[in-house]
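Field: sequence (string)
Field: structure_tokens (string)

Example rows 1 and 2, in order.
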Amino acid sequence: MSNVAARCLVAAFAALCAAAALAQLPASRAQALESLDDAVAERRAHAVIWFAQNGGPADDKLLLPHLGDENPIVRELAEQGMWVLWTRSGDNAVDALMTRGAEQMQARDFAASIATYSEVIRRKPAFAEGWNKRATARFLAGDFKRSLADCAEVMKRNPYHFGALSGYGQIYFELRQYDKAIEYWQRALKVNPNLESLNQNIEIARKRLAETRKNST
């Protein structure tokens, strides 16, 4: 996922949290865990919000199943909540660098952004989102080979990072390796079925692949 899209999701999640009736949120982690499996969608939604507000990156595993929740609001909250958890490094200095890198990327100063995210990675190599953001900056800079390498590092640390899986697809599409683009977009959809726009991407890639094969015969 692009940095701008991720920031929009985080902002949207924050707005939803602000609108939630906080008095109805679980009072403890134990209550939140119990509410995640509640038959009432509103309680599941409140549990997802609780973990996004109070949890750590490892709690994304608790939200992962709710990407396929029967309730659309819970699904949306789970997706946005996972991005919130993923961007939480646990280090204020690293978080400040992440913000700086995002501002540099938005200003299209990709060299500076890549340097900033490289410093994030140097300081906190286990932080998957540092690698993911550098992959995005390198993709936007046209450095597809190194962007792929950074995506691989994301997947080592977070094998169900649907943003990185989608990013793989974007890179391979640009490289005209349409079969691989389709493969990774399908993998992203398997993790997060809410990425409905990828279905259209897959159809376009299939048409391009068919044309390529036809022209090569």
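Row 2 begins here:
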Amino acid sequence: MNTTAPLLETVEFETGPSPTWSIVWLHGLGADGHDFAPIVPELVRRDWPSLRFVFPHAPVRPVTINNGMRMRAWYDIVHFDFDALHTDAGKSRADEAGVAASVAQVEALIARENERGIPAERIVLIGFSQGGAITLSAGLRRRVPLAGLAGLSTYLPEAPSQAAAALQAAATSQPLFMAHGQFDPVVPAAIGLRSSQAMKAMGFALEWHDYPMAHQVCAEEIRDLGDWLSRRFAG
């Protein structure tokens, strides 16, 4: 894996001294590392080990669907069409070079956590929307499994043949949590479900949830994610 990418700037929060676990959490398009930091008090439970939350800022780049406006983005989005997603026909809505670069930057952050004394088996990678797409893409490429992957309101950016070609044998041992809003106007719920089915078909142990919400997170989702994380920490 390429871990030579420059380190992204991050927002970090530790829940106690000498963290023994890390959670790397990737924000969505146009947001930044501060976006999910306020969720930490809602999510964290008293019986959890000391955690380090790492919230990186995506690079600033022009985004085609937003008229080339520069904003924080994990990759360029070239069109709104989801129809060709999960088929090997048509042009991907995500630029492959941008996805690959962001996966490498996430790997560099994971490597830094390793250097800080947190092994891969005690690192969880979480992402929302575009950050979730990077989470799924990075997850299927892991040769050394992480403790778990969570993709929220998101989709797998690769076509089936690309995903299958990139999939590493050890990657499917990573537990996967995916959740989506039933009324999501940005990433349709059907696309999230189809992506979850694609990950399951590749061999990932999937836990899927949906909620009566739009492109957002809700209290019930944070509770379910917390339950799933508790099982990771207990395992």
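free_text_note (row 2): Residues 96-115 form the longest helix (20 residues).
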